[in-house]
């Protein structure tokens, strides 16, 4: 993202709109640098994932540092 576009709330608005259209829990994997953004919108670290997501996270973490998070929407 263009640094001039940061800190204007765009990501937060997109996230709020996406979450508003979903009923039930939302899980995501984010880069560690984005963890605070998701926390500020109600997401929390997810120590336990459904098996289908846990296996994907394990595969993705071979090449990326990712943090599992969830929102009980």
TrEMBL record:
Domain of life: Bacteria
InterPro entries in alphabetical order: Acyl_CoA_acyltransferase
Protein name: N-acetyltransferase domain-containing protein
Taxonomic source organism: Halopseudomonas salina
């Amino acid at each position: 993202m263009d640094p001039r576009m940061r800190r204007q709330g765009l990501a937060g608005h997109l996230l709020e709109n996406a979450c508003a259209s979903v009923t039930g829990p939302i899980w995501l994997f984010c880069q560690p640098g984005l963890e605070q953004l998701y926390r500020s919108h109600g997401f929390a670290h997810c120590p336990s994932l459904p098996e289908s997501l846990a296996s994907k996270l394990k595969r993705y973490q071979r090449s990326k540092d990712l943090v599992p998070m969830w929102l009980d929407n």
